[in-house]
Amino acid sequence: MILLEKINKFYRQGNQMVHILHDISLTIEQGEFVGIMGQSGSGKSTLINIIGFLDRQYQGDYIFKDENISKYNNKKLTTLRNQNVGFVFQNFKLIQNMSVAENVALPLMYAGFKKKTIRKKVSDVLTKVGLAGYERSVPTQLSGGQQQRVSIARAIIGNPTFLIADEPTGALDSQTSKEIMTLFKDLNTTNKTTIIIVTHDPQVGQQMDRLLTILDGHLTSDSGVHKNEI
Amino acid sequence: MIGIIIGIASVITIIALGNGVKQKMISEFQTSNSGEQTTEISYDGEESASSGFTTSDVSQVKQQFGRELSHVEFKKDTNNISINSATVGNSNVGTSLSLLKSPMSSSRLIYGRNLSKADLALDQHLILLSSKLAKKVYGNAKNALGTAIMINGISYRVKGIFKPSGYDKYSVNFLLSQKTYYSGTTINRANTLKLTVKKGYGASKVTNEVVSYLKKHGQNRRAGNYSYFDEGALLKSISTVMDVLTYFISAIAGISLFIAGIGVMNMMYISVSERTQEIGIRLAVGATQKNILWQFLMESIMLTVGGGLVGFLIGWGFSSMISLLIPYHIHAIVTLGNFLLAFGVSSAVGIIFGLLPATQASKRNLIDILR
């Protein structure tokens, strides 16, 4: 489904060009549960920005569902992102002055759904993440774990093809981390949603079906390759 | 925000009052329902006893201006009518009289009785005599009561003596009922001519043409002067002053709106930088740049339109209050057009000063925000 071929990424820092990604090539199939590990500054965030259609300043080819999207313009990419990707961030990134329901409804609102449909879908998805009845609450009233659940609800409401989670447990204690990881696993097994999780926590990394390791912009290991060979 | 309220309020106030003046002007123009307007031409004779307009003048004007005028008639004079001869006692005097439609105030009465409403309505040949003339003719004014006076061949009985005054309708020697005076007579001369101008012709223009025609062809053109007092022109000059005032206030309001607009822009910039995270989140979940642009533009428009509407209401109230305080019964009039003006101007301010911050918001680099 996702096919990256020789992705290179540079960015300018002062007068010198930094080569942050070196020839990254990888494939991710539908329904996979992938982890990306690496130290901070290794380029893993840059990589998921490219995978999640946030960044289009790179060299190489990105083939998504048999279509080369590396030359897409911003607007086309936005539509693609809206329909196919759900994001979960480390610090939740909820809009503080909006209710939980409004936060969760955002992707559907921009996709142009009717208000009635949105309301139903919002309560469905909140039930799915275990927050039924919290529609009218404001994010600040919720605990970190609950906020992350809202953020997951927002990510999955549009039925995305894949989910990208950037350090989803980074700001949570170990107990809530476990709960959130269980939620991700559930989503993966019951909905067959492809999930890509970035982490530098080895504990989290171990729970993945497939683990990619990045070091200084190079893809150094890919456990999935071995699995597939076996 | 306050700047917008003040700006819109002041513009609406002055415009509402200006509308009131214009409305007043139109009603003063004596426009009838059919759109016809009436004007009056007056004649000032050198000899006080002469009347300026004759029947031949009327028919000539009718012929000449048949297209523009629907009606030409003598205006029945009521005040200070000159008469050539009246017989009081045994003497003949050239004098003047005024006609009454309603009874004279009884405080003017010296002897005898006042003319009552019934006296005026019925064709009673009764008359009031001024104390000055009565004294002159009869020695003692009291003696005049009950005597007969001949005016234009008709005799009247003196019912009371009144005190004449300086320069108004009571400066005459006789007072009698208008109905009685004009009954049975067709007036063939008058000092005032009443014109009715048809719809679509400028009343003052046509009247001025009639005046200049009369100056060339009128029967008594050598003995006096024809004049037309254009009330419309006076009101027009007031309304011109109002117009200038409107421009002046609008200019001040424009400056106030400009400053307010800069304030709005500043506010929007702060809002955009404070809500960077929100912009990032919205972009990440699928908002296009256009969505973000519109969101911030709408916020700025809502801000200014809100101020504009408050200003509109304040201006409305303020102008009504002012109209109560000034004389001439000028009512403040606020039209739908004024409302749309307030609405339009305030949303224009919102768009103009909101566009830059909103564009900046929409051009934010998503990756930088989400880092």
Automatic annotation (TrEMBL), chain A:
Q: What is the top-level taxon of the source organism? A: Bacteria
The alphabetical list of record keywords is: Amino-acid transport, ATP-binding, Nucleotide-binding, Transport
Q: InterPro entries, alphabetically?
A: AAA+_ATPase, ABC_transporter-like_ATP-bd, ABC_transporter-like_CS, MacB-like_ATP-bd, P-loop_NTPase
Q: Share an example GO biological-process annotation for this protein.
A: amino acid transport
This protein's record includes keyword ATP-binding: yes
Listed Pfam families: ABC_tran (PF00005)
Which terms in the GO cellular component ontology are assigned? membrane protein complex
All copies of domain ABC transporter, residue ranges:
2-230
Please indicate if the UniProt record lists Nucleotide-binding as a keyword: yes
Signal peptide annotation: none
Show the GO MF annotations: ATP binding; ATP hydrolysis activity; transmembrane transporter activity
Q: Which family does it belong to?
A: Belongs to the ABC transporter superfamily.
Q: What is this protein called?
A: ABC transporter, ATP-binding protein
Automatic annotation (TrEMBL), chain B:
Residue stretches spanning the membrane: 244-271, 292-318, 330-356
Q: Where is the MacB-like periplasmic core domain positioned along the sequence?
A: 1-209
GO cellular component terms, A-Z: plasma membrane
Its membrane topology is listed as: Multi-pass membrane protein
The cellular location(s) given in this protein's UniProt record come to: Cell membrane
Q: Does the keyword Membrane apply?
A: yes
Keyword Transmembrane listed? The answer is: yes
Extract the GO molecular function terms from the UniProt entry.
transmembrane transporter activity
| Keywords attached to this entry | Cell membrane, Membrane, Transmembrane, Transmembrane helix
Family of the protein in this entry: Belongs to the ABC-4 integral membrane protein family.
Name this protein carries in UniProt: ABC transporter permease
